[in-house]
Structure formats: C-alpha cells, structure tokens
Amino acid sequence: MNIPGQITLRVAESLPKDVGRGIARLDPELIKKIKIQIGETLEIEGKRKTVVKAMPTFQDMRGKGIVQIDGLIRHNAGVGIDEKVTLAPVESQPARKILLTPLTVSLSGRTRHSYLGKIMEGLRVMVEIRVGLCFSELRLRNSWFQRLFPTAPL
User: Fold this and answer.
1) 3-class SS letters over the chain
2) pLDDT tens sequence for the chain (154 residues)
3) CA pair distance 126, 26, nearest whole angstrom
4) What does pTM read for this prediction?
5) C-alpha distances in Å from residue 102, one per residue of 64, 109, 133, 134
6) Does residue 70 sit within a domain?
C-alpha cells in the first residue's frame, strides 16, 4: 500500500546516456501523480535510500510501471533490475560544503575545487552514497560522501 505522494515501481536499466547523471526516468503521468515537476528531487527506497533527479521516460517506456536507474543508483538503493522500489518527493537544498572520500583515484595533475563543483552541479547526493565522477585531471570512479553541509538531501 502506498502513502499519498509515494509510488512503487519496478527497476529497469537506465539509458546509456543517463549513466552517472544521477537521474531516474519515470512515466510523466506518474510524475504528475506524485505532484512533482521534472527535475525535482525524489527519494528512492529499496534496501537503502538514495536521491535522484526526476526525468520523464521516453515514449516507448511509458505505461510499464518502471523506473529507469543506473547501476550506481541501484547500488546506493540496494536493489537490482526487476526489483521494486518506492519513490517519494523529498525537499533538497544546495550544498555549502561536501567531503568526498575517493574509493579509487588516479591523479594526472591538479584539479581546482571550482572545477569539481562545476562537474557536480545539479547532482543529487546524500551522506553515505557513492558517486562516479570523471574528468581529465582526476578520475574518481567511486567516491563516498562522508559529510554534507547542510545534512539534508542535496
């Protein structure tokens, strides 16, 4: 049974172009049903919780009761393909400060913090989730968010 504003959907693979972008694609009718706008933040709950940016599915995937998310989001939510997740709107706010712990890293130069911030702009994050960041000077394939300021989903 769903609480008003929540929906339960089956997990499907994301589109290749969406990998690493922190988005969940769902039917536009479901976006209306939970009373959010495209681009707003959703909480996905499987065995764990994570946050994503809501985007519409393309025409061929509508009406199937699915949410398309990538492997990193599935990892953060603790779910696999064809498992059920609950989605609900959640308020978010811009981060003032973050602390990342690289799980794998290879350095080939110096990276300015402003550049890192630009790459992460618009990415929905919360404490203790993994993100994948890749750019020319620094490769953070999997980074762990240790601390966020403020502490709400961002």
Assistant:
1) CCCCCCEEEEEEECCHHHCCCCEEEECHHHHHHCCCCCCCEEEEECCCEEEEEEEECCHHHCCCCEEEECHHHHHHHCCCCCCEEEEEECCCCCCCEEEEEECCCEECCCCCHHHHHHHHCCCCCCCCCEEEEECCCEEEEEEEEEEEECCCCC
2) 456 689 999 999 999 999 888 899 999 999 999 999 999 999 999 999 999 999 999 999 999 999 999 998 999 899 999 999 999 999 887 777 766 666 665 555 555 556 666 666 666 766 666 665 554 444 444 444 444 444 455 4
3) 21
4) 0.73
5) 37, 16, 10, 12
6) yes
Within-domain flag for 139: yes
Residue 84 CB neighbours (<10 A): 13
Which of 37, 67, 89 is the last residue before a domain boundary? Answer: 89
Parent domain of 62: 7-89
Task: Indicate whether 11 and 56 sit together in one domain.
Answer: yes
Question: Is 11 found in the same domain as 57?
Answer: yes
Query: In the Cβ-directed half-sphere of 18, how many Cα atoms lie within 13 Å?
Result: 23
Same domain for 80 and 13? yes
